[in-house]
């Protein structure tokens, strides 16, 4: 019998006080923005039960605080989209239903972070930090959709074609869902957009012939 003991995995490192404070500040930032469409360091610090100096220790500028909030919103989007934007979902539920669930997920995230997105959009032209953060989020979303289309092509569920161009088309349509026009006409997102995207991506359609 071997005397060698099986090595145990290291215990998870406890979250430090600084990380907990930062996470709490982001949570309260999101809550204040959702309520008022704006925020001040004093209001967020008071709600979080810390000093204003502690707020600035974590976020030196207003844009840094917004970047942290956008990070949280992008992470939430990725977590919610992860079980939907997969080849397994496409194979089990079909292309149009997968697109429909992607649209629903995106609309839900947009609704939950509507005030944050509006505030960030109002400042993005004057802030390189916010522009870069937006680009980072868009690149991650693009890569996830591109992977789905590439695997869909390999499985014969998505038509042949330039994956980058097709992904850019799909992402452009999805980004257009963040619109008052779509919000005032729910059937556009619920039915028409998934149907149009499915027609664009399905093998054997007009786009297949054009290619």
Structural class: mainly alpha
How many separate helices? 12
Weakly predicted, low-confidence segments: 1-6
CATH architecture label name of the largest domain: Orthogonal Bundle
Query: Helix coverage percent of residues?
Result: over 70%
Can you lay out the helices and strands and say which pair or pack?
Layout: H1 17-36, H2 41-48, H3 52-58, H4 62-81, H5 87-93, H6 95-112, H7 114-123, H8 128-154, H9 163-175, H10 180-184, H11 186-201, H12 206-210
Helix pairs in contact: 1-2, 1-4, 1-7, 2-3, 4-6, 4-7, 4-8, 5-6, 6-11, 8-9
Written overview of the protein:
It contains 12 helices and no strands. By secondary structure, the chain is mainly alpha-helical. It folds into 2 domains: 46 residues, Arc Repressor Mutant, subunit A (Orthogonal Bundle), CATH 1.10.10; 145 residues, Tetracycline Repressor, domain 2. Helix 1 crosses helix 2.
In brief:
The protein is an all-alpha fold and about 210 residues long. Helices cover about 75% and strands about 0% of the residues. It starts with 16 loop residues before the first helix and ends with a helix.
Features:
Arc Repressor Mutant, subunit A, Tetracycline Repressor, domain 2, 12 helices, 0% strand, elongated
């Amino acid at each position: 019998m071997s005397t060698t003991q099986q090595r145990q995995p290291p215990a998870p490192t406890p979250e430090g006080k600084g990380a907990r404070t930062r996470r709490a500040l982001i949570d309260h930032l999101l809550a204040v923005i959702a309520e008022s469409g704006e925020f001040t360091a004093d209001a967020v610090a008071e709600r979080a039960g810390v000093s204003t100096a502690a707020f600035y220790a974590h976020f030196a500028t207003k844009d840094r605080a917004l970047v942290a909030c956008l990070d949280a919103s992008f992470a939430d989007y990725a977590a919610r989209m992860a079980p939907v934007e997969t080849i397994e979902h496409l194979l089990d539920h079909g292309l149009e239903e997968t697109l429909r669930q992607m649209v629903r997920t995106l609309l839900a995230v947009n609704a939950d972070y509507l005030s944050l997105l509006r505030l960030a959009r109002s400042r993005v032209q004057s802030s390189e930090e916010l522009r870069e953060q937006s680009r980072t989020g868009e690149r991650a979303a693009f890569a996830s959709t591109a992977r789905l289309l590439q695997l869909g092509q390999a499985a014969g569920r998505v038509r042949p074609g330039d994956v980058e161009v097709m992904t850019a088309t799909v992402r452009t349509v999805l980004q257009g869902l963040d619109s008052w026009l779509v919000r005032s006409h729910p059937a556009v997102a619920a039915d028409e957009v998934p149907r149009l995207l499915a027609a664009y991506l399905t093998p054997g359609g007009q786009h297949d012939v054009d290619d």
